[in-house]
Amino acid sequence: MIPPFAAKGYELTQFLTARNYIAGAWCDPLTSKDSLEVMNPRHGKAMSTVLMGGRDDVDAAVRSAQAAFADWSKWPIRDRAHVFYRLRSAMEKHLEELSWLLSHENGKLYAEAKAEVEKGIECVEYGCSLPNLAAGEKLEVSRGVTCELSYAPLGVVAGVVPFNFPNMVPFWMLPQALVAGNTFVLKPSEQVPLSMMRVAQLFAECGLPSGVLNIVQGGQPVVEALCDHAGIKALGFVGSTRVAKAVYARASASSKRALCLGGAKNHLIVVPDADVALTADNVVASFMGCAGQRCMAASVLVAVGDCDHIIEAIRVRAAKLVTGTDMGPVTQEAAVRRIVGYIDAAEKAGAKVLVDGRGAKGDAGGYWVGPTILDNVTPDMPAGCEEIFGPVLSIVRVPNLERAIEIENANPYGNASSIYTTSGDVAKRVMESVDAGMCGVNVGVPVPREPFGFGGWNDSGFGAGNMTGWDGYRFWTRQRKVTTKWALQKDITWMS
């Protein structure tokens, strides 16, 4: 039994040890004795401990999921979806608690954590709609002959999710996979294992049978075991590009489906006619929201021509932000060192620091980098081409729109790109030209809302399709085609 999280504010609050969840029971790892502290980034102090599993635990979870699959896959799809109807109500009832738990383990501001949980609820709602969307097709293809299409579950499937969205990203996978009739093995990030513990408890209270959802805590050995296990038929992953490539290759080598989302270096193009107030507020929210720790965050602002008036408005807006109040911490001390290293290197290479977040502090210790804006960055500087994953905006200046698009398309990622303009023609030209899967016009975080799918191109995604929406449902299922003939017909065809 996982009790509710007690916090009602940012004060350091302890929580239960994170353990494996297999066959409906919380259990210690079978052989590993390793553990890690779960840190509260705002305080820089431990709030829990996670017990690290291994291959034996993955095997136990798969066997549990296989046993549950026999019955769960036979439930009518509407009955499976009704579990998600109840979960939606439970998540709304526990919205404040789930938000504070997420805030404490990840470091997000409460408002950001609440928004994440609400987005997770939106994903749950899409799962509730699947019985109406997954009806399949049927057609009389010849006299007396019909072909019918339906979607069958794969069996046991698995997901590996990141530290930056511990509540939302699992719901990119679970509704489609479970409503389809699969059973699931989930590996949360070992940095933030607590949110899904409470979600698993709510699932059980909402009638999800034991073994349908299993959780294995751990690090790289668990990920490798999930990739290798012959009993797992498909694997979803969200994380860095380096790991996404490795996971995709390893999972595919073991003959399982894989869809792996990686990192990003998102470019926001701004032209002189852009609305100043809208652009300033939007760009700042994009690069500093969630402390920049999201794959959709603005990384590079490509300023076309004379945009000094817009850049100054962005600088003024960012300089007013207060860490701890307007922006949360980054998740680890190592992240502080990495982010500051990028800022130092850019300044040394000739970039101008317009807003300096180095040395920022919160109100209780912890891991902090304030909003930072670097001007006169060149595309070959590390700050201009590598994913920083922190609240840093690099400004690259170009003479024309063609050069801006060229820079965007030269970067290896293809996650997101936006244009800020009041010209419909300029917006159309950019949207038709940028090499990115998720694009925005005057939108700094162009995340598609359900039912539209989430997924980038190039080095931001490996595997076919999108993680969410209808693509997600098709990823976790396989098509069954049934051709039927009952009546004798007078005409002869090749199907006779």
Short descriptors:
single chain; 496 residues; alpha/beta; Aldehyde Dehydrogenase, Chain A, domain 1; 2 domains; 7-stranded mixed β-sheet; 6-stranded mixed β-sheet; globular
Structure overview:
The chain contains 15 helices and 22 strands. By secondary structure, it is of the alpha/beta class. It folds into two domains: 20-262 and 460-480, Aldehyde Dehydrogenase, Chain A, domain 1 (3-Layer(aba) Sandwich), CATH 3.40.605.10; 266-441, Aldehyde Dehydrogenase, Chain A, domain 2 (3-Layer(aba) Sandwich), CATH 3.40.309.10. A seven-stranded mixed β-sheet has the order 14-15-16-13-12-18-19, sandwiched between helices. A six-stranded mixed β-sheet has the order 9-8-7-10-11-21, with helices on both faces. α1 crosses α7.
Topology:
Layout: E1 20-22, E2 25-27, E3 35-40, E4 45-51, H1 55-72, H2 77-93, H3 95-106, H4 110-133, E5 137-142, E6 145-153, E7 156-160, H5 170-179, E8 183-187, H6 195-205, E9 213-215, H7 220-228, E10 232-238, H8 241-253, E11 257-261, E12 266-270, H9 276-288, E13 298-304, H10 308-319, H11 333-348, E14 352-355, E15 372-375, H12 382-385, E16 392-398, H13 401-410, E17 413-414, E18 416-420, H14 424-433, E19 438-441, E20 457-458, E21 461-462, H15 469-475, E22 477-485
Parallel strand pairs: 7-8, 7-10, 8-9, 10-11, 12-13, 12-18, 13-16, 15-16, 18-19
Antiparallel strand pairs: 1-2, 3-4, 5-6, 6-22, 11-21, 14-15, 17-20
Helix pairs in contact: 1-7, 2-4, 3-4, 4-5, 5-15, 7-8, 9-10
